[in-house]
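Suppose you are handed only these lines of text.
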Amino acid sequence: MQTETAPTANFIRQIVEEDIQSGKHKTVVTRFPPEPNGYLHIGHAKSIWLNFSLAQSFGGVCHLRMDDTNPLKEDAEYVESIKRDVLWLGFDWGDKEYHAADYFQEFYDCAVQLIKLGKAYVCDLTAEEVREYRGTLTEPGRPSPNRNRSVDENLELLSRMKQGEFADGSRTVRAKIDMASPNINLRDPAIYRIRKAHHHRAGDAWCIYPMYDYAHCISDSIEGITHSICTLEFENHRPLYDWFLDTLEMPVHPQQIEFSKLKLQYTMLGKRKLREMVESGLMSGWDDPRMPTIAGIRRRGYTPESIRDLCEKVGVTKNEVWTELSYLSECVRDDLNTKAHRVMGVLRPLKIVLTNYPEGQLEELEAAYFPDDVGLPGSRQVPFGRELYIEQEDFMEEPPKKYFRLQPGGEVRLRRAYIIRCEEVVKDAEGNVVEVRCTYDPDSKSGGPGEHRKVKGTIHWVEASTSVPAEVRLYEELFTVEQPDNIKEGDYRDFINPNSVVVLAEARLERSLSQSRVGERFQFERNGYFIKDLDSTAEKAVFNRIVPLKDGWAKVMQKQ
Ligand code: ATP
Ligand code: MG
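From them, the structure of the protein bound to adenosine-5'-triphosphate can be written out as follows.
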């Protein structure tokens, strides 16, 4: 585990600090409790960061607990992906891996105890009837006809439920709390339901499964959690959390504390919806670089440091805030600035021929990997020759005013090399520019005596014969709506940004990139930060753009 800077104060940190100072707790034990029903997303990263870094800074521990009490949606594949993602984020639970499914017997024993205390009963209402009886925000609920069953009858029915005598959904066990409570969560909530389903960990040992609110607080207590941190939607469940632990007189009573979820603009979170997008084939997989999953973020090339930095910068509050995507991009750029070698890559190539450069000649130019202001060492040789590629957008036949790049009769500096002048434009039958013929000024070489001759524009380039062919994938926001919270399942297609991925199949990269490895990150000068993707083959490198160097012009305009 590592943190970059001293952690900033937040209200949860303050509570924990006071608990340590007052002697309420000697140590801090938190937990990250994912339900293994999908891959983790960047919202979970916030919770992971919060729980692990909090424990860490007080010398405590953070448990990784699979909240795997639901047999229907869960899968061992998800368990593995969760572990991989937590480790990738830079956090390690050591030997503190737990599974709520390992507490099935304890949950059952607690239900027996609640029944003996007269605080739970077996209810025969159907799900629909339970809903009817529950009442509304303005009307109290009505008691179940089974609410006053005797302890003995309840115990017998529970035991028969466990033995599989009853059909799915035909009975539940409910806590006996208060059908008139203004908090609907306290109107005799279900604690057990019947589901004759195989469980990926417990096998076929059980056919009754505990409900989340009931299992969660007991799991926390069993593990000796001191602070049970969750998101705001559980605030109304806190009285229930406390009721179970008080009523059962559990020796350990963790404090539940809620904070607001991380929400990112143009980004949809929620495992269920993300799974739908993967299973419907809309995304190439859980690790599609457009996905807000940790797996997607990793493949996109974001760094764990930048995600932790984002969490720290956004902070921990109870306010509902949509975080701008540019925050994330800034964190990524900040981190990569001192990590990624600067190299040259041309995304949409236009051929340049230097008519006064000797045919067949290549010269090697020394090029530093980092600019002076970063101040890190390292360099490579970049070949220069008669035929080059530049970006199509760095040439205009009829440029507007203040266009300082290549144009007929105009000069431009090739970065780290020479000044060239455009002499002739070659077009195909349709009138498209297919080649630009130029001359170069041999005295203008960077680092040479004539390097100070001023021209207004500097552009990047690659030498043609040694260049590495590549496919480059550019990404934009996945959704066209700023707050895609309410998109219904199945409706995603209507809101997908058609430019969320743009594939440029003909890119050319400088020679040194033929040595690059999958997962390596670079800055392609002027074009952004890129990572080599696992789709790369011996014939063709594939690079994902992680972020451009600046946010899009449209965004800048929008903000003004
Ligand atoms: P989802 O709706 O995406 O499935 P969830 O809350 O149901 O999210 P869990 O696996 O139950 O998923 O969540 C594990 C932990 O992560 C919980 O403590 C939950 O509160 C937290 N969490 C989930 N989403 C966010 C988010 N957007 N920001 C911060 N924490 C989150
Ligand atoms: Mg959930």
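What can we learn from it? Residues 33-35, 41, 43-44, 46-47, 67, 230-231, 261-262, 269-271 surround adenosine-5'-triphosphate (ligand 1) (CB under 6 Å). DSSP finds 13 helices and 27 strands in the chain.
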